[in-house]
Design goal:
Shape: elongated
Radius of gyration: 26 Å
Number of strands: 10
Low-confidence stretches: 1-10, 12-20
Order of helices and strands: EEHEHEHHEHEHEEEHHHHEHH
Helix content: 40-55%
Strand content: 15-25%
Distance between the termini: 68 Å
Amino acid sequence: MTTFQNISQWQLAPPIAPLESRVLLFEPNLLNAWKIGKALLRQNIQVHICSEILDVYAHLARNPQHTIILDADKCDSQLMSVVHFARMKNPTTAILLLTSTESAHLHKISQRERLALYSKNSLTSEMLSKAVVSRMAQQHKIDHCEHGMSVLIQNIQEATTTTFGGEIVVRSINGIGRMYFINHLVAWIYIQDSNKTLLHDLVELEGIEKEELKSVYQECRRTGLNFADMLVNWHMIPWERMRNILSSRFVDCLNRMAAWQNVRSIFIPDQRKYQSDLLFPLSDLLSGMKPSPFSRQLSRLAVAQQDMV
């Protein structure tokens, strides 16, 4: 017969529990640990219970966790050390804190370290289990999205470091985009089925007639010259203005891609003949991007490339 004294490092587990459905619970009060563990088990979540803080470190060293529940009142000075150790093992770990004090200091820590803070005084085991399920669903989306974005960043790195460049095709449940790179520089970025095309901007913002734009487009098809360069060469728009319009459009596309989910991308190396000075270093587009994990990764990539120059 199992007693509470025997569950210091006890595991409550459904028959099959994928990594994303596992929780590490630090709760020295074994009766509370049992209640929380049983509630999570009913949600088909595997639970590993630790009643000693050293057991938490030992378990994390062997098994990086997606989700951790900590009794913040019992962690004392070890709280930040545990949080940083868990994040070192898995940067996207979701950490939930249980507390009966709700101090201002603890609130500040939870905001700074992106921790979910719950009051033990008003939270039942069932409520906590539902909160864990919700956090896991959010974390699964974040993990999946960040993985897809990491691949896209690798594609961009390859596109900006290869001799000739090429095309990146980006697919998502939100849309399809394409990015073109020439000689380490951004030549073109667009999203299919976008409501506002470059032609729309030229008509609405610059007052260029559609028929004139059609003539330019036909000439580009005949000669193989770049559309934007042709507009400048025909004195239909100043070079600086054309560059600003393109930059704004490219940044808008990048911002939209940053919010996409389930991203898949592929880089296709290609040597294109492209005579244009309307090209952009990646760093030139970053200042207009909204803060996001994607923009931060792009910034690190741009800095690394500048350091190599």
